[in-house]
Prior knowledge:
Number of helices: 7
Order of helices and strands: HHHHHHH
Oligomer: single chain
Mean pLDDT: 84
Shape: elongated
Distance between the termini: 45 Å
Largest sheet: none
Number of strands: 0
Low-confidence stretches: 150-157
Radius of gyration: 20 Å
Helix content: 55-70%
Amino acid sequence: MTETPRIALSDAAIDRIVQFAKSSVFERTFKEGMALVEETAAYLDGPGRAASKRLPRMAALAYAAESMRLTTRLMQVASWLLVQRAVREGDMQIAEAATERYRLSGRPEPSAPFVAGAEELPEGLKGLIDQGRALYERVRRLDEDMYGTGAADNAVGAHFARLQQAFGGAG
């Protein structure tokens, strides 16, 4: 079994991650994310299922594609939130949470190519899709802010720091 490579984090980054995991912002984001997962599941199992049965064929295919994309997006968010809670509770090391396996910022948001029939989707599903996209993007930005965006950005940051030093530390 291969070991997942660990990410080197500064003390400041570790403090920022710990503070976020203990913050009211995290609590609100966690509750919002889990509530949206539950709301989506209830919709897809109830009113959404009934609405999808009344859709024309192309719209029904669009419904299937968009509901899968939505549930994938929400499961990625829920997973990330659960990892942060595990960090907060001491059940997971920060270095492990920082690995690619648990990150959102290294992944593109599930793409949304136009699907024929999408304009006929039920308003309930459209609303959940919009909420899911917004939450995913917010959590992706949190991930990026907390853990950085990887080696390329670290190299850019190091280069920027050298430039600041060369020009008298102005910034």
